[in-house]
Amino acid sequence: MTAAARAAGLLLLVLALLADAPSAAASPVPAPTTAATASADPIRARQWYLDTLGAPRAWTQTRGRGITVAVLDTGVAAANPDLAGSVLPGHDFVTGTAGPDNTGRHGTGMAALIAGHGHGPGDAQGVLGVAPQARILPVRVILDDGDHPAKTPKTPNAPANPLDPVSAGIRWAVDHGADVINLSLGDDGPGAHPDSGEDAAIRYALAHGVPVVSSAGNGGADADRTSYPAAYPGVIAVAAVTRAGARADFSTRRWYTTVAAPGLDVVVPAPDNRYYLAWGTSAAAALVSGTVALIRARHPRLTPAQIRTALEQSARAGPADGRPDGDIGAGTVSVPAALAAADRAARQRPQPAVPAPSPAPAGPSGDAAASAAPRAAGAHRGGTPAPAPYLAAAGAALLAAGEWLRRRRRRTAAPGPGGEPEPEAPPDNPADPVGSEV
Predict the structure, then answer these.
(1) Residues in contact with 422: Cβ distance below 8 Å, sequence separation at least 6, in sequence order
(2) What is the distance between the alpha carbons of residues 142 and 434, in angstroms, rounded to a whole number?
(3) pLDDT (tens digit, 9 = 90+) per residue, 271-310?
(4) 401: DSSP letter
(5) Looking at the 3D structure of the chain, how many domains does it have?
(6) How does pLDDT run across 399-415, given as a tens digit for each residue?
(7) Residue 385 belongs to a domain with what CATH number?
(8) Where do the segments described as Disordered lie (predicted)?
(9) Assign residue 206 a region: left if phi > 0, alpha if psi is -120 to 50, beta otherwise?
(10) What value does the CA radius of gyration of the chain take, rounded to a whole number of Å?
(11) Interatomic CA distance for residues 230 and 256, integer angstroms
C-alpha cells in the first residue's frame, strides 16, 4: 500500500463559518460583541489560548526571530496571509519531490499555531502563532485525511527512499537548518509499534541539538495506547487541556507525556483562507513547538534535554481549580515561566543532548510514520509499511456529519488491518479533528 493511500484520520464535524454567509452545511457563529472586543478582529479575539500560555507577555523578550521550525505534516500553504513570507522552501517525501504540497490543510493550521504573524494593517487580523517571527520549514510526510491517492500520484522515476517519510523528513529537516521539529502526527491503533528507523532519526535530531515535539495521542477516551513518535526517548510529548486547564477527554494518558497545552477550540487558518476551530493533541504540540522556538531564539545553545527540563520545571501542575493531574505530564506550559527556567538553565552545565536508549514497552502502541512507497526488502521493520499518523484538524471540508478514517497498516507475519476503522466516531475519541469553522 502506497503512502498516497495512507490517509491520516481526522474527525470532520459540522463547520460553522463566521465571516462568510451561511450554507446548508455551515451556519454562522456570532462574533464576540463585548465592549472589549466589539472593534477587534473576531479571529484574533478567539485566540484565548495565547493568553492562557502567557505568550503576549513573553513577546517583550522574543518573538522567535531567526528560528526555523520544521513542520513535518501534510504541506503548508505558503501564500496564506497569516504565513506569507515566513515559509521556506521545503521537501515532499510523499511524492519524492522538492517543494512540498502547498495545499495541506492540517500542516497549514499547525504552521500558523507555531509562527502565524497575522495580516492586514499592523498585522492586527488573523492568527498569531506563539513565535510569530519564526520561520516554517515545510516537510510533507503524510496526506490530509480524505485525499484520494489519485490526487497525489507517485512521481515517475523518483529515486527509491529506504526510509519512511517521517524518518527521512526528520533527517532532512536537521540537515537543512531546522532549530525545532514539530510532529503533530502519530498512530494509536492496536497494530502500531515502535520503529527503529524513527527512533534513530529522532536521536539524530537530538544529537544535532534539535528538539523534537510530538502530540501525545488522542486515545484518552478509547484504548489509551502508547503512541509513537511521542514515546521515543527525548521527545517532548504534549497532551491537550481544556480552557479550565484539565486534561481533554480525548488526550492520551500515558507515562511518556511531558507537558500539556490547550487543545480545544484552537483557531487555525486553512488554504482556503478561512478559519476553523481545531481540537486535538496536534494543536497542543504545535503551541509547544512555538514555545520551544522562543526558548531557542533566546538561548540557542541550550540542549534539547535542557529545553525539555525547562518546560517541565515551569509548567503549571494542575487545572485551574488546583487539583493535580498526572495525566498531563508536568502540567500546562507557561511561556514566560519556561523562558525564565531557560534563563536559569543557560547558566548551568549542559545536559547530554541524546537520552540513553531505553527498551520499548511491550504491547501495541501508536504514533508512527507513513510510508512513501511499499518498503523494499531489508527496510526497517522487516519491510513492513509503517503505521500512518493521526492528524489534528486544520479544516478539511464542510461536512454535515463526522467520519473518522483510521489508518490501516499490514504486518509481514500477519497481513490485515492493524487498526479497526471507526466510521462516525464519537467526538470523545477523535484522531485530532477539526471542530468547527469560525
Answers:
(1) 404, 406, 429
(2) 17
(3) 999 999 999 999 999 999 999 999 999 999 999 999 999 9
(4) S
(5) 1
(6) 222 222 222 222 222 32
(7) 3.40.50.200
(8) 341-389, 408-438
(9) alpha
(10) 20
(11) 7
